[in-house]
Amino acid sequence: MPGLIAGIRRDADLYERIDRPIGSNRFDRFLKRFGIVDVVVLHPVLLARMGRDGSDQADLEEVATAMESYLIRRMTRRFLMGRG
Fold first, then answer.
1. What is the mean pLDDT of the chain?
2. Is 4 left (phi over 0), alpha (psi -120 to 50) or beta?
3. 50-to-17, 19, 43, 47, 58 alpha-carbon distances in Å
4. At what angle do helices 57-80 and 43-51 cross, to 10 degrees?
5. Can you give the pLDDT at residue 3?
6. In sequence order, which residues have a C-beta less than 8 Å from that of residue 26 and are 6 or more positions away?
7. pLDDT (tens digit, 9 = 90+) per residue, 35-54?
8. In the Cβ-directed half-sphere of 79, how many Cα atoms lie within 13 Å?
């Protein structure tokens, strides 16, 4: 049971960082913009990547770049197709 509680606490801490980023690095700036567009469907992907063993700042910045690119392309396509 202590392992389960520790895992829940870790995920809660990671979610709090997604929900209320306070840093000024590239990843935290991404999280702030991410919160504005409110795309919660991608939260599990972020939680998994952030909680992965060996994940460092460079890893998080890489995922931020990929997700931001995906979201911009998706929103642009929707806008151009008239479903904005």
1. 90
2. alpha
3. 10, 13, 10, 5, 11
4. 170
5. 87
6. 61, 64
7. 888 888 889 999 999 999 99
8. 6
| The two three-digit tokens of residue 69, written as one number | 């690119």
The structure tokens 């929103």 sit at 75
Can you spell out the DSSP letters for 2-70?
HHHHHHHHHHHHHHHHHHS----SHHHHHHHHHHHHT-GGGHHHHHHHHHSTT--HHHHHHHHHHHHHH
- Give ∠ CA 62-64-70 in degrees, rounded to 5: 105
